[in-house]
Design goal:
mainly alpha; 0% strand; 7 helices; elongated; 434 Repressor (Amino-terminal Domain)
Length: 108
Amino acid sequence: MLADWDIPENRKRLGQRLQELREQAGITQLELSTKAGCSKNYISALERGVNKLTVPMLLEYCKATHLTPNKILEYDDGEKLNSELLNILNTFTKEQYERAIIILKALR
């Protein structure tokens, strides 16, 4: 989901998820907007998929819901990320693959 924030149907799906998680945390749109320094209308548009999610706003949702970005973006079990990563690695030449593995090991 992370790489596809700008696709309208994914924005809508992500907005619905943000709303569900915010509500589960017992936070109102007004409370979140006050903490985030934006308008309630902005939060509403974000949760309807009209506005794009920015990294700073993702972090505000993390603070409000006490969840990690991975959990909010549905990368909590690793399956989606592993699948996405494998799809990318499978397009690489042998040399690109070997360099990518070196980079990933260094990041670990």
